[in-house]
């Protein structure tokens, strides 16, 4: 698989923690909806987990998020939307990062999709 927008449209970089920067895509009138779907409570818990892991490792959230993705079975590469040389350098820094197994598990747990119908179907039709 080739992962597109692996940083959740920039949300997994941590730049939207607490506020929407005025120069960001989320603040743009024509791109705000593109990002806003990734700014809900569930996404916030994933971002906080990534940021906590990054702080513990002395790395950036972007690096942890990309390393976590790239280590997944079946992911061949990721298409990052770096707009600046600094963003590209930060993305490339993820290539040498190997997360401890406990972090992979914790990030998988916090980001696991909620199972609903039909994943938890008990034989009765959903209401």
Automatic annotation (TrEMBL):
<dbReference type="InterPro" id="IPR036812">
    <property type="entry name" value="NAD(P)_OxRdtase_dom_sf"/>
</dbReference>
<dbReference type="InterPro" id="IPR023210">
    <property type="entry name" value="NADP_OxRdtase_dom"/>
</dbReference>
<dbReference type="Pfam" id="PF00248">
    <property type="entry name" value="Aldo_ket_red"/>
</dbReference>
<feature type="domain" description="NADP-dependent oxidoreductase">
    <location>
        <begin position="2"/>
        <end position="110"/>
    </location>
</feature>
<protein>
    <recommendedName>
        <fullName>NADP-dependent oxidoreductase domain-containing protein</fullName>
    </recommendedName>
</protein>
<dbReference type="InterPro" id="IPR050523">
    <property type="entry name" value="AKR_Detox_Biosynth"/>
</dbReference>
